[in-house]
């Protein structure tokens, strides 16, 4: 008797990320629809008070204390050169986990946790809509112009519910120098203490 065939379901159980590859979190920013692969999203928060950090790029709006961790929050509207996100009732913070390029230079003998190669960041958005499924063949290559933001920030474009959705590549939105700034923000003890105080009073 031959070996049993491997079913797609078995593959999904072996690699949980395979089940998430076509699921995207859709959100609105400045009237445009965007999406992030759900694999990068760890949680969604209602907007809360941000603690400003001096000497940071303007798109870093501040930091929050998330269960004892200092998490920087970036304003994508500023990053895209489209003004400042106005805080309103439905404003949310999407927490995403991205690879930290600085970790590539770390020694393999360093006594660091498994999460040392990643960075959690918050993304300020106007409205979180819903999770949608986008198959690979539904996502077109990013346009050379007309999307309103730099093409290298975009994984592709898709059409859903008669609207165009801009699929973002978070790893391209932040450069290595940006990641260094984010590391500095999370390592600032003054900011950490201020964020902790803010979380206790909010």
TrEMBL record:
GO terms for cellular component: cytosol. One of its GO terms (biological process) is signal transduction. It comes from the Bacteria. SUPFAM superfamilies: CheW-like (SSF50341). Residues 21-179 form the CheW-like domain. This is Purine-binding chemotaxis protein CheW. It comes from Cryptosporangium aurantiacum.
């Amino acid at each position: 008797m031959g070996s049993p065939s491997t079913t797609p379901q078995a593959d999904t159980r072996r690699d949980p990320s395979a089940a998430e590859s076509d699921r995207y979190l859709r959100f609105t920013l400045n009237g445009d629809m965007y999406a992030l692969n759900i694999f990068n999203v760890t949680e969604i928060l209602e907007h809360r008070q941000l603690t400003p950090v001096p000497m940071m790029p303007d798109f870093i709006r501040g930091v929050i204390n998330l269960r004892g961790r200092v998490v920087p929050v970036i304003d994508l509207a500023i990053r895209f050169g489209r003004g400042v996100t106005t805080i309103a009732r439905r404003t949310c913070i999407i927490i995403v986990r991205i690879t930290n390029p600085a970790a590539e230079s770390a020694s393999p003998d360093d006594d660091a946790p498994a999460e040392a190669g990643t960075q959690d960041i918050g993304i300020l958005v106007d409205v979180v809509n819903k999770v949608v499924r986008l198959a690979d063949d539904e996502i077109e290559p990013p346009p050379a112009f007309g999307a309103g933001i730099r093409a290298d920030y975009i994984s592709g474009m898709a059409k859903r519910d008669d609207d165009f959705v801009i699929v973002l590549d978070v790893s391209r939105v932040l450069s290595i120098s940006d990641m260094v700034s984010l590391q500095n923000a999370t390592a600032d003890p003054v900011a950490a203490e201020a964020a902790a105080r803010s979380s206790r009073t909010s």
